[in-house]
């Protein structure tokens, strides 16, 4: 992320600048395309103000926070921005999901917990509602529900399969052996 840091009524500090850049770099995982951030750090009497404007990836996000400490103002404004980015991405994901031909059922892939307590040694029983579909449709459903796995019945083999999101960003498919 390209970052420009401006200081008003405060001495420019490389440590503050690198602190802001480190905090902003964590937003790169939320943004698909490169973004630009302009940060204004200012002091007015005893108030330390951090203003951040992020543009790019078809979104514009602004945040402002003032406290008695510059580092806490930066942390608080970064938390605000993270909430705004997540909310915006969720809104885009919901819109994208409503346009497609495949609609996610609210019950598909979610587990209903029958036993609430999870004491040591006690087995927690869950039931999962699954429906017949092929693996490609299961991957699309997994993206729509934004979960880590999806249990479904393979329409070709009539067996229960699990599709899951791997750490490397790809998808995995678990099939039973006959």
TrEMBL record:
**Residue span(s) of domain Sigma 54 modulation/S30EA ribosomal protein C-terminal:** 121-173
Cite a single GO BP annotation: negative regulation of translational elongation
Q: GO: which molecular function terms?
A: ribosomal small subunit binding
List locations, semicolon-separated: Cytoplasm
UniProt cross-references to InterPro entries, sorted A to Z:
HPF/YfiA_ribosome-assoc, HPF_long/plastid, RHF-like, RHF/RaiA, Ribosom_S30AE_C, Ribosom_S30AE_C_sf
Keywords (alphabetical) are:
Cytoplasm, Translation regulation
Q: Where this protein primarily resides, as one coarse class?
A: cytoplasm
The record's listing under Pfam families reads:
Ribosom_S30AE_C, Ribosomal_S30AE
Question: Gene Ontology cellular component?
Answer: cytosolic small ribosomal subunit
Entries under CDD domains matching the protein = RaiA
The record's comment on protein family reads:
Belongs to the HPF/YfiA ribosome-associated protein family. Long HPF subfamily.
Q: How does it assemble?
A: Interacts with 100S ribosomes.
- What function is annotated for this protein? Required for dimerization of active 70S ribosomes into 100S ribosomes in stationary phase; 100S ribosomes are translationally inactive and sometimes present during exponential growth.
Q: What is this protein called?
A: Ribosome hibernation promoting factor
Q: Which organism is it from?
A: Desulfonema ishimotonii
């Amino acid at each position: 992320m390209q970052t420009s840091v401006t200081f008003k009524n405060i001495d420019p500090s490389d440590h503050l600048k690198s602190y802001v850049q480190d905090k902003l770099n964590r937003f790169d995982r939320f943004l698909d395309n490169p973004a630009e951030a302009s940060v204004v750090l200012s002091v007015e009497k005893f108030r330390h103000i951090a203003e951040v404007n992020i543009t790019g990836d078809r979104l514009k996000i602004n945040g402002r926070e003032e406290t008695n400490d510059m580092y806490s103002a930066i942390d608080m404004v970064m938390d605000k921005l993270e909430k705004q980015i997540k909310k915006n991405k969720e809104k885009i994901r919901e819109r994208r999901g409503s346009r497609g031909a495949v609609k996610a059922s609210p019950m598909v892939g979610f587990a209903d917990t029958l036993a609430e307590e999870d004491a040591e040694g006690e087995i927690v029983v869950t039931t999962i509602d699954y429906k017949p579909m092929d693996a490609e449709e299961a991957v699309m459903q997994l993206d729509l529900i934004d979960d880590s796995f999806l249990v479904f019945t393979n329409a070709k083999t009539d067996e229960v399969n699990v599709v899951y999101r791997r750490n490397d960003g790809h998808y995995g498919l678990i099939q039973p052996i006959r």
